[in-house]
Amino acid sequence: MTGAAAPLITVVIPAYNAEKTLAETLTSVSSQSYDKLEILVVDDGSRDGTFDLASDHSLTDRRVRVLRQENGGVARARNHGVGEARGLYIAPIDADDLWHPRKIELQLEALGNFPDGRGVAYNWYAAIDENGIIFGHSRPVLHQGKIFEPLLRENFIGNGSTPLIPRADILRCGGYDASLRDSGAEGCEDLKLYLALAETLPFALVPDFLTGYRFTKGNMSSNAYRMLKSHALVMAPIITRYPHFTRDIQTAEFNTARWYFVKAFLGKDFAQVKKLAPIMVRKYSSRLIAHGLQQGWRQAKRSLRMAKHLLGKSSARPKTRVASAPLPQPGTAFSDRFMAVPAKEEIGLTSSRMGGQ
């Protein structure tokens, strides 16, 4: 979409005490190849230099506007930005995450496949540390079209800094649910909105790792107990409406709890481990046994494949690309990916990989 047909996109950046990371986030937004942007920074009652930093950035990029509110949490900050937005689409990004320069451009192209561009676009993400160094990435799923059921089983979008969403549909769904924070269960506001959108809208995938999703000890997703409570509250009304999905939702809940437990254990966050261990034993003892047996069988098969490879019976090589996208390499900077892909390289799925339409 170019010229007169190019819609205004509103970027919404909720920011609370974000002076250490906000400048890098704003640079990644201002550097987008699609430049018809309105950039709203919503200062959520910060007590550091967040407001001044954002205001300084607005002097060099006139597309930036800074809003302020009393501290009310990320959902209220996003809703404030959506309410003030003039754009046809909303592109949320947290104040410590990063975007590839072509993120908005490629998402908008993907939405062009839907009537009137009415749908939600998403992409995969690279997990980055406090220094912007990659240490992992999302599972490169290929869900498109009607994605409500697979999204119940796994939040494959995985963060709040990835989707491109029609503003009218965010408002129709009631925005981000601020009541989760009021219940001490902040964390799954993104997932709740995505599920509401997925009940009626198609989703388009841009098959590349275009979001740098930052994990730090202090961020919201590090509080496993609160995130699990949030997940349960989000899923409870869905189970009531769709009881035939109960088993899928319970499996998703187990996988979420297990992921946080492993993350806490490997990160030596023993306070989180102490909170989660009784939950895992009390609620998921049978699932843990089944999972352990399944993992043991998978490990045995991997060992057998490795033995065959060493004996020269297999020429299999580890994957370095998925579809047309190079896999993020641990130990490299997320910004290095900008240099690895030519500015106009085509990124797309072959027709044999496009499902769910």
From TrEMBL:
Glycosyltransferase 2-like domain mapped to chain residues:
10-143
Q: Does the keyword Magnesium apply?
A: no
Question: Which keywords does UniProt give here?
Answer: Transferase
Gene3D superfamilies associated with the record: Spore Coat Polysaccharide Biosynthesis Protein SpsA, Chain A (3.90.550.10)
Q: Which is one GO molecular function term here?
A: transferase activity
Q: Which Pfam families match?
A: Glycos_transf_2 (PF00535)
Q: Which domain of life is it from?
A: Bacteria
Q: Does the keyword Transferase apply?
A: yes
Q: What is this protein called?
A: Glycosyltransferase family 2 protein
